[in-house]
Amino acid sequence: MLVGFSAVQTVNFPTSFTGIWISPTAPSDITMAWLKIDATGNPIQLYVFANGAWIARHPQVPGSIMIWDGALPNFTTFDGGDGNALSVMSGPMWEEVTALRAKFPLGVGTLPVSGTVVNVTDTGGTEKEDITLTLPNIPPHAHTCKGSTGDAPGSGNNFFAVDRSSSDPPPSPVDIDTEQAGGTAGAAVPIPITHMPPYYGVYFLRRTTRLYYVG
């Protein structure tokens, strides 16, 4: 019994072959193996006759995923598929993995920074996220502050005063313009940060559970 068949789907292959028939059309002698060729003589597939049909095993196992950068195929004809109900010998050979639309594949395992465990078919991540930066997230920077060494603050933004009474003789009033490290207080405003790396759009196609071509 072959893998993928139930008890009522057992395929009985001939135990010996009398030769190989090379032709675009199947031989009448079903004890032969048939190498199907196209009109120009290029080989297409090697078939054997079993359970009333010429069949050949698909080289890729069900569940295999292929990256496709053309137009989405017509799965009723693509790669030997047809529009019948899906079984080991009928139906489409491939299907689109719609769960991967607008998503990146990620290998299963544990993410090294967060410790999140990624299992098969898990989803996560975000394209954009509203993030409120905390102090450790803010890089070193500077603000320009204007002030006066007079007895009272001057006018304008961010003015400050320096006490001249502690100096003898006190310094003459003079305006100063200096860079002061630090920041100013204010309400945090979340700003969306993009997490999207450069990308190239493709389709992800998956092998269905169909196993055999039918010649």
Walk me through the topology.
Elements: E1 20-23, E2 33-37, E3 43-50, E4 53-57, E5 65-68, E6 94-96, E7 109-110, E8 117-118, E9 128-131, E10 142-148, E11 175-181, E12 191-194, E13 203-207, E14 212-214
Parallel strand pairs: 1-2
Antiparallel strand pairs: 2-3, 3-4, 4-14, 5-13, 6-13, 7-8, 9-12, 10-11
Radius of gyration: 37 Å
How much helicity do the residues have? under 10%
Please indicate the count of domains. Answer: 3
- Low-pLDDT parts are 1-9, 174-184
- The general outline is rod-shaped
Give the beta-strand count. 14
Percentage of residues in strands: 25-35%
How many helices in DSSP terms? 0
Mean pLDDT: 79
Order of strands across the main sheet: 1-2-3-4-14
- How does the helix and strand content classify structurally? mainly beta
- From the N-terminal CA to the C-terminal CA, the straight-line distance is 21 Å
Pattern of helices and strands: EEEEEEEEEEEEEE
Largest sheet geometry: 5 strands, mixed
